[in-house]
């Protein structure tokens, strides 16, 4: 079974480790990668795309040096290679205006404030990856047991 990719981006190592640890139960069917900056995430996405890998989900912090999470997710949303990639903004410092901008410009699928609930983050990841598979027109059968079954049933109707 080919694994799909989830990329987590945060400039704070301890936060990145916490996200990775929370998503660890999904590693049986997802590759979870960590990046400490927007530029590192974009480089990784270029490499994975060149290898023909599927990037299903990006989970990014907002406040980072260089490029913010909203700027990163906006750039990804404008890249035709990643049109189906799902996006989550995870932050404790975004303003109301930042959040609106993330929704309008970056087309984020979900927003979590820090501290987040691990079970909600895992369920969100499962749901968004399920949507990714259907939107990208990929064969979901090899992942079926891991997917959000409510989404699968709704998509098959």
TrEMBL record:
<keyword id="KW-0597">Phosphoprotein</keyword>
<dbReference type="InterPro" id="IPR011006">
    <property type="entry name" value="CheY-like_superfamily"/>
</dbReference>
<dbReference type="InterPro" id="IPR001789">
    <property type="entry name" value="Sig_transdc_resp-reg_receiver"/>
</dbReference>
<dbReference type="GO" id="GO:0000160">
    <property type="term" value="P:phosphorelay signal transduction system"/>
</dbReference>
<dbReference type="InterPro" id="IPR050595">
    <property type="entry name" value="Bact_response_regulator"/>
</dbReference>
<feature type="domain" description="Response regulatory">
    <location>
        <begin position="5"/>
        <end position="129"/>
    </location>
</feature>
<protein>
    <submittedName>
        <fullName>Response regulator</fullName>
    </submittedName>
</protein>
<dbReference type="Pfam" id="PF00072">
    <property type="entry name" value="Response_reg"/>
</dbReference>
<feature type="modified residue" description="4-aspartylphosphate">
    <location>
        <position position="61"/>
    </location>
</feature>
């Amino acid at each position: 079974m080919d694994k799909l990719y989830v990329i987590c981006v945060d400039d704070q190592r301890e936060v990145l480790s916490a996200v990775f640890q929370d998503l660890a139960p999904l590693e049986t069917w997802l590759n979870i990668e960590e990046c400490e900056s927007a530029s590192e995430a974009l480089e990784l996405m270029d490499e994975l795309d060149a290898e023909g890998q599927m990037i299903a989900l990006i989970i990014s912090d907002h406040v980072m040096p260089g490029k913010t999470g909203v700027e990163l997710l906006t750039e990804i949303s404008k890249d035709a290679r990643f049109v189906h990639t799902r996006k989550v903004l995870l932050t404790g410092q975004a303003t109301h205006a930042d959040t609106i901008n993330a929704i309008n410009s970056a087309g984020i699928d979900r927003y979590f404030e820090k501290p987040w609930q691990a079970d909600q983050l895992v369920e969100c990841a499962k749901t968004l990856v399920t949507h990714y598979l259907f939107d990208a027109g990929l064969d979901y059968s090899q992942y079926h047991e891991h997917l959000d079954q409510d989404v699968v049933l709704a998509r098959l109707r």
